[in-house]
């Protein structure tokens, strides 16, 4: 899942990003509304965690722009105000969910994951295919009943492949969904991660390489 965190409190923004990355999400971070609009123009995000009171461009205007673009990105709006009227107003301009500060990180993570599921065709909470069972919420993976311990990026790649339901996923798509914008697009990190993932999942291999196209399960 690719997430954009937009928050002008840098310590909070960086803490949220670090926590989401530990949950195997690819996260970009910006600290004002203008920078957010620049990122949204060039990257596809599943979820945007958007502070409402932003400098340069207000969070409401960022939200309206996302709605205007007509993209499937979901918005979780944050604010220091807990007034019901503010929550209603935020939802009316296009936010998909609303979380007042201060918040529990576990709740933010759950809400981000719930919104991420709404950007694609509805799938069950626990994904199963080819003897693999993947639970995004518990961060657990089993192969034929055997638990498999995966690093965050390995988990993220496997989740993208599982969600594709047998369709081919290109290396570029995996790079976009599982890594942030600071990753070198010419790196071989996708190939190396897939190789490690295959080894950990064991035989018979379930991740198939489609020459010139990508990978599928």
TrEMBL record:
DNA-binding region boundaries: 124-217
Name of this chain's protein: Transcriptional regulatory protein CutR
Q: Where is the OmpR/PhoB-type domain?
A: 124-217
Q: Which GO CC annotations does the UniProt entry carry?
A: cytosol; protein-DNA complex
Q: Which organism is it from?
A: Streptomyces olivoverticillatus
Q: Which UniProt keywords apply?
A: DNA-binding, Phosphoprotein, Transcription, Transcription regulation, Two-component regulatory system
- Superkingdom: Bacteria
Which sequence ranges are marked TM in the entry? none
Modified sites of kind 4-aspartylphosphate: 51
Could you tell me what this protein does? Member of the two-component regulatory system CutS/CutR, involved in the regulation of copper metabolism. CutR suppresses a defective melC1 gene, encoding a putative copper-transfer gene, probably by altering copper metabolism.
Output the InterPro entries linked to this UniProt entry.
Answer: CheY-like_superfamily, OmpR/PhoB-type_DNA-bd, Sig_transdc_resp-reg_receiver, WalR-like, WH-like_DNA-bd_sf
């Amino acid at each position: 899942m690719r997430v954009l965190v937009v928050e002008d409190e840098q310590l909070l923004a960086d803490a949220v990003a670090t926590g989401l990355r530990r949950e195997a999400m690819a996260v970009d971070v910006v600290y004002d509304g203008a920078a957010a609009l620049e990122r949204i123009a060039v990257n596809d995000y599943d979820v945007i965690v958007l502070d409402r009171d932003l400098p340069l461009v207000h969070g409401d205007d960022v939200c309206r722009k996302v709605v205007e673009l007509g993209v499937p990105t979901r918005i979780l709006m944050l604010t220091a105000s807990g007034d019901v009227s503010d929550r209603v107003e935020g939802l009316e301009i296009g936010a998909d969910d609303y979380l007042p500060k201060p918040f529990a990180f576990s709740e933010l993570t759950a809400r981000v994951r719930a919104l991420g599921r709404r950007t694609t065709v509805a799938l069950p909470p626990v994904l199963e295919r080819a003897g693999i069972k993947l639970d995004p919420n518990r961060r657990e993976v089993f192969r034929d009943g055997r638990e498999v311990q995966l690093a965050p990026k390995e988990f993220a790649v496997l989740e993208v492949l599982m969600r594709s339901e047998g369709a081919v996923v290109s290396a570029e798509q995996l790079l976009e969904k599982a890594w942030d914008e600071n990753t070198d697009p010419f790196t071989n990190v996708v190939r190396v991660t897939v190789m490690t993932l295959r080894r950990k999942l064991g035989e018979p291999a379930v991740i198939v390489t489609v020459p010139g196209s990508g990978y599928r399960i």
